[in-house]
Amino acid sequence: MNIDLNAAATFMATQARLLDRRRFDVLFRDGDPAAALAALEAYRNSDGGYGHGLEPDCRSVTSQPAGALHAFEVFADVGKSTSPRAAELCDWLASISLPDGGIPFALPMPDPEGSAPFWAGADPGVSSLQITAIVAVTAHRVAAHDPAVAAHPWLAKATRYCLDEIEKLDEAPHALVLAFAMKLVDTLGDTRLVEKLGRFVPDDGVVAVGGGIEGEAMRPLDFAPEPGGPARKLFRPEVVEADLRRVAGGQHDDGGWRVDYASYSPAAALEWNGMFTVGMLGLLRANGLV
Prior knowledge:
Layout: H1 5-15, H2 18-28, H3 33-41, H4 65-77, H5 84-96, H6 117-120, H7 129-143, H8 147-150, H9 153-168, H10 175-188, H11 191-198, E1 207-208, E2 217-218, H12 220-223, H13 237-248, H14 266-286
Antiparallel strand pairs: 1-2
């Protein structure tokens, strides 16, 4: 599993947006965390949320839950270089949370052009386990080094909502819901709920994404990205090894990785690949391969 970081750097320089180039520099080139945070600032709104296409398939200028997800990814990347913007983002998430503690999949957007229909047409009055779980997972990554996020009441309420919803599951949810819920309980080290969700994951770890493009699926590392967590025990070592080889083998000759799902605008098609390349390299590094 040979990863060419120099080729990846060339790909990022020639095909990725500035924010993701800064993230790559912080993670793999001793880059300045302040530069990554400065690049993220361009996507921030005065209400404390993030929009302006930070989520490539949601081009709206409005602050959106998906924007919060990707902002937390940056706050996690910069590690101990904490920013007050992370706690301010928790404030914004608290302001849009519904009474049950969940957040809606997306908020109304007056400018839906270029956004995926599932973002533009979401019901803002219904909590979404899918988006709440993955936002909470990423916030917990930030909380590991940012006391203000760790202590924020929004994170506790959102996590409680997710755990309550997971308890209610008695049949397999959509593949993305399953993967994001699994990541959360794995992050929390909740072995019981990992085992509960594990009943919906086949031995090979491949769960087709309903409504996705042909071959789109959640795979073992989507459920158990970190070694040492309880979710990793759901899979035989050779299954994990094969999936790591799949991810490593996804590096193209130009140094980048390509997403395996549809994009909804020309800008998104380009931006996703830079984001995805940083994500795949981060996954491989977490597993000791970069």
